[in-house]
Every structure is written in structure tokens, then in C-alpha cells.
Amino acid sequence: MTTDLSGINRNNAAEDHGGDFPLIEPGHYVMQITEVKEAQSKARDTQFELTWEFDENHHPHLKGRKVWDTLCLFHSSETPRNIAIRKLRDMENASIGREAKSMEELVHRPMAVKLGIEKGSHGYKDKNRPIEWEPVASRFGNGQAAPPAQAPTPAPAAQQAQANGAGPAWLNNNAQ
Questions:
Q1: Does residue 29 carry a pLDDT above 90?
Q2: Most buried residue, 5, 67, 108, 174, by CB count within 10 Å?
């Protein structure tokens, strides 16, 4: 079966600006890993690419926002491998309280995640990165909601403000 695409006007399609989302204020959020992909680094080492999403009940204004991170557990160099192992240990303690047998055991397990901002380099923009993990109850108490974070500003305004050194104070501080 062949689908006829001749009636689709490609000139009127909205542009996809991909990563033009504003940075999320550094702080603690209830998040969970929603996807784990095994991939190869440029050096051909096995790594895990993690997709994090915000808990909708705690942070409804961040519904659909994602943050990405990479675990290089099998890196050929000791330093990145040790960093990844410490991250994994902290995520395990925050989510399941024991060593995971597979990365899939950490998927859809709420954690209190401290987000920071990683400075962009080599033409890449600044981005949010998870930097600490702990059980939700340790950070927010049993059954308590995480305090709502400030709603993000529209992307072009946030980027322009950042470029001019203006905008929210947290954006100019670039906390971890």
C-alpha cells in the first residue's frame, strides 16, 4: 500500500526549535527516570542515556519537561567510570534502597532530584543536569508535596535575558 503525500504543504509546517526550552531553576524536584537507552560513546564505550521527567502531581507546571543525563559505567577511563558508579549508587539508594540488577529497575521510581545547570561549551547551550539524588521522603517528608517551583519563562525571553546578564537571579548565578 502506498500513501499519497502530494497534498501535504511542507512550506506551512511550524518550525521545530528543538531544545529552545528555558532552563529550569536549580533546586530539588520529584522526578523519575522514564527511559533508559544503551548506547555507545564516541570512544565506543557502553553508556546509558537516561531520560528524566518531573512528577506531574508535585510539579504540574513542568508536565512534559524532560532532562537528560548519561551514565558511563563502562568507560575505558577510571575517572568518568567512578563518577557514573557514584551516580548509580545514589540513584539506587534514592529509589529502591539496594543495588539494581538492571537499569530498568530504576525506571518509574520517584526520587528527590537536585537539578543544577551545566555550562554549555563547544557551541552547546547551558542545560539542566541531575546532580544529587535522595529518597522523596528524606527531602520532602512522607506524603508531603514538594514545594512548587517557579514556572518557567518563555524560551526566547529567557535566552535573551541570559545573554544580557538579566533575568531571574537564579539564572545569573548558574548554581551547580
A1: yes
A2: 67
